[in-house]
Give the backbone structure.
Amino acid sequence: MSLMPFLRKKPAPSAAPDSQVEAFLKDYSIEVMPRTAEKIVDFQSLLPAGTRVYIAHIDGTPIDDMVATAKRLANDGYNVMPHFPARIIKDRATLTDWIARYRGEAGVDQALLLAGGVTLPHGDFENSMQLLESGAFADFKRLHVAGHPEGNRDIDPDGSDANVTDALRWKQRFSDTTDAQMALATQFCFEADPIIAWADALKDAGITLPIHIGIAGPAKLQTMIKFAMACGVGPSLRVLQRRAMDVTKLLLPYNPDEVITALAAHKAANPDFNVTNVHFFPLGGIKTNAQWAMDNGGASARPANPQKDPA
């Protein structure tokens, strides 16, 4: 008789969340779109009360859908931060109308201002600086702008970071003139070392805006590579490419354990590190990302009465 069945180890109990990771994930935020939010029956079973939820405004999404999503999330107890992509906003009247609707119907007082994913402006605005200069956001409590740890070829075609850095210096000066809390919300990347080097370089350049670092949530490797290439992720894409070359890992989902653990350790050793928050892009689904965050201590107050959500 084989003794193997009797020699198998019992499954190890689930490990407690790493304390450094748990601290680093405190007050994380997450991004949704109206069409992905529709699939979630109950956000309160997934996200802690007070979580900041960005609503991505993709070109072609009706403002009615954006406002309805903002109203739903606000009613559920979340801090709602819709995107305002400059290049898809036709004119000042459109901008004023959007703000009035968000404010009046959902109580929104936070916004992410960015150029947007289209190449040519649809109207009067081309970049987030023009939105800030418009004065339309004067009574907002929090304003975030985009950051690019691995550069942005649309802004700096030569591969440098000269134009991006000049824009960040302008935004830093603007932050000194506004009562709104400002921060950088970044594109996602997959390696800690380039993030740390970029953040340190910003501080050396006198740019002290807090950084909310973009992190891709768990997803199938093929899905992750597709999004990374579409979004112009830079050198850290090699993390996924190396993984794709390893046949033993090809079919396993990607998760952000490695990059989060490294950044959390750096933050613990360097408390003045200017990456202050994690911002999740739930490329493998909101529920999957929220569950990963909960499993890793990312909910300082776990959702009350977690329930199964079919979405």
Summary: The first helix runs from residue 4 to 7. Strands lie at 29-32, 52-55, 79-85, 110-114, 142-147, 181-188, 211-216, 275-281.
